[in-house]
Amino acid sequence: MREYIAVDGIQYVLLEHNAMHEITIMREFFTEDIYPIFLVSRDEDLYSFVREVSELAWQLIDFEERPLKLIFEEPHSMLATEALDADGYVHLMKIKDQTLSSLLKKYGKSLAIVAVEGKLPGEFGMVSKPISEKLGIWLSQFQKQGRIIRLGASDSIKVIK
């Protein structure tokens, strides 16, 4: 199941976590590096994607008030290659917005988004209208004022945005 969300000129594809095989299909249509960004609403869900979360990472997650995207250089070894970017990193967005977080928890399935330039061929279905609407608002806020931070081994940090 896939759904398109257009936000400020960027097209996002919303996928269920179990649909990672669609990333392979998408990579055939686009030349840029296409990778999923996993939406994480609960702290314990981070461990599905990374082996360990350092104290520094928890501080960033806890104290950053703006929308936050974290890029972990050391993803969980159980992740499929479709879940990683070209460098082998995993991208996570920690959802702190209470309404969106609550909607994602009620939906009960992990979701990921993929930013693409243009639409993909094929059918798509609604994941959940309230989720996609609220996610569109949240992504717009992220594009305007969000932070992107890459976390490496030994607590190395690179602020990208």
Explain what this protein looks like in three dimensions:
This protein has 161 residues and is α+β, with helices and mostly antiparallel strands. The chain has one domain: DHBP synthase (Alpha-Beta Complex), CATH 3.90.870. The chain is 28% helix and 25% strand. The protein has four helices and eight strands; from the N terminus they run ββαβαββαβαββ. It has an eight-stranded mixed sheet, covered by helices on one side. A hairpin with a 2-residue loop joins β1 and β2. The radius of gyration is 15 Å and the shape is globular.
**How many domains would you count in the coordinates?**
1
Can you tell me the overall shape?
globular
CATH T-level topology = DHBP synthase
Query: What is the succession of H and E elements?
Result: EEHEHEEHEHEE
| Residue share in β-strands | 25-35%
Strand sequence of the main sheet, in spatial order?
1-2-6-3-5-4-7-8
The main sheet comes to: 8 strands, mixed
Low-pLDDT segments: none
- Return the CATH class: Alpha Beta
How many separate helices?
Answer: 4
Roughly how much helix do the residues carry, as a percent range? 25-40%
Number of strands: 8
Structural class: alpha+beta
Rg from alpha-carbon coordinates: 15 Å
Mean pLDDT over the residues: 77
CATH A-level architecture: Alpha-Beta Complex
From the N-terminal CA to the C-terminal CA, the straight-line distance is: 31 Å
